[in-house]
Specification:
This protein has 385 residues and is of the alpha/beta class. It has a domain of 240 residues: Rossmann fold (3-Layer(aba) Sandwich), CATH 3.40.50. The protein has 14 helices and 16 strands. Strands 2, 3, 4, 5, 10, 14, 15 and 16 form an eight-stranded mixed sheet that branches. Strands 1, 6, 7, 8 and 9 form a five-stranded antiparallel sheet that branches. A three-stranded antiparallel sheet has the order 12-11-13. α5 links the parallel β2 and β3. It is globular, with a radius of gyration of 21 Å. It starts with 7 loop residues before the first helix and ends in an 18-residue tail after the last strand. The mean pLDDT is 95.
């Protein structure tokens, strides 16, 4: 791979995390699940990708998320948030708020709509990201900062709108191989030189049950490899006893199950991002790169349904943003300015099927919301789940 060379300081940081993972492998008898490897690579305190201080979002980071591209993403999403909180409670919780850009854009647009929540909570485990979020909000919406508070854990009970943009794809996932002689979990061990390598063990427990179900439903051939995120399922199900009334608005890249586990996708969806380069090697510079898997949205709604929640809508990001009036928002701006041209280009990327419009999906899960949600008024794809 021809990837940018990290600084000596960054390399030393990665080596410290590598040593921690090697120690974990030793404690595990020479093997850990890939889910555990991914958890340490992303969230190990002080060392993981999301726990350390390196810049991750925007042009200077490793990838660009929709809120970083244009404020119109948050402005359009605010229309849906406003409807949810009007039908439930005037509270918003954003889980995994990144740089804080989406929080700022949502709050400012909700103010324009005269629909400000009484409280805007942010749950982010990274102290570095919390600091960045505060800086962003102070710069963009200082008069609204008093409404924002940072949480250390999910609330025991919540009513209102929960927003999560590109959260589920960063939850640790197991890697599974369907072989002629059974179903195996692909974990991480050490090769003769002490480097990370894939090692397989027979799958067991909840992972085996999930893999057997997927294998039956999708008729997977021997040799097929992919990911199963038990953590994402558990997170969705967790809201069954926490959400009193309201909706979760989850935005991420992924597919319904039969597309996720398509026979032509026989090596899974695992992808890494480093300095705007995408590649499939999760063992490269742990702690310095993002590690992600696509979302099985069928698994998410199944977990939510089992927990007593309702599916309120599912569609592509492009269709959702159109339903929320993103083009009307753009049309209200003067068309002969540099800002308009820049915004139009970003919106095009958000909407076009060959860009982010089709790969990214929006799913709404909730309780006690009786009215149809505006973001799914046209082009709802719930039947595909």
């Amino acid at each position: 791979m021809n990837l940018p060379t990290p600084s000596p300081e960054a390399s030393a940081h990665s080596l410290t995390l590598v040593a921690a993972i090697v120690s974990e492998i030793g404690a595990g008898g020479g093997w850990i699940s890939f889910a555990r490897f991914m958890e340490m690579a992303l969230y190990q305190p002080g060392l993981g990708y999301y726990s350390a201080g390196a810049r991750k979002f925007g042009a200077a980071g490793d990838f660009v998320t929709a809120p970083e591209m244009t404020a119109y993403f948050g402005r359009a999403l605010a229309r849906q948030v406003a409807q949810v909180i009007a039908a439930s409670a005037p509270h918003v919780l954003e889980v995994g708020a990144g740089s804080g850009r989406l929080a700022a854009d949502l709050l400012l647009e909700l103010e324009r709509l005269d629909a400000l929540p009484e409280r805007y909570d942010i749950l982010d485990l990274s102290a570095d990201l919390r600091e960045r979020q505060q800086v962003t909000l102070v710069a963009a919406a200082p008069h609204l900062l008093a409404r924002v508070r940072w949480l250390d854990r999910l609330p025991e009970a919540f009513s209102g709108a929960v927003v999560a943009n590109e959260l589920l794809d960063a939850m640790p996932a197991h890697v599974v191989a369907w072989r002629e002689d059974g179903i195996f979990e692909r974990g991480v061990g050490l090769d003769d030189s002490g480097g990370f390598t894939w090692n397989e063990r027979p799958a067991s427990g909840a992972l085996l049950a999930a893999a057997e179900e997927i294998g039956r439903q999708c008729s997977l051939p021997p040799g097929y490899e992919s990911e199963i995120s038990l953590a994402a399922r558990a997170w969705a199900g967790e809201w069954g006893h926490r959400l009193q009334r309201g909706a979760l608005l989850l935005i991420d890249y992924g597919f319904p199950r039969r597309e996720f586990y398509h026979q032509q996708r026989g090596r899974g969806t695992l992808m890494c991002h480093y300095r705007h380069h995408s590649h499939p090697d999760p063992f490269y510079l742990p702690g310095l790169q993002d590690v992600t898997v696509h979302v099985d949205f069928t698994a998410i709604i199944a977990a939510a349904d089992a927990a007593g929640l309702d599916l309120l809508g599912y569609t592509s990001q492009g269709q959702f943003l159109l339903n929320c009036g993103i083009l009307d928002l753009l049309a209200a701006e003067p068309a002969d300015t540099t800002d308009y041209i820049r915004a139009a280009g970003a919106i095009n990327k958000l909407l076009m099927p060959h860009e982010m419009g089709e790969l990214f999906k929006v799913i709404a899960i909730g309780r006690g919301i009786d009215q149809p949600l505006c973001g799914f008024a046209s082009g709802d794809q719930s039947r595909r789940l």
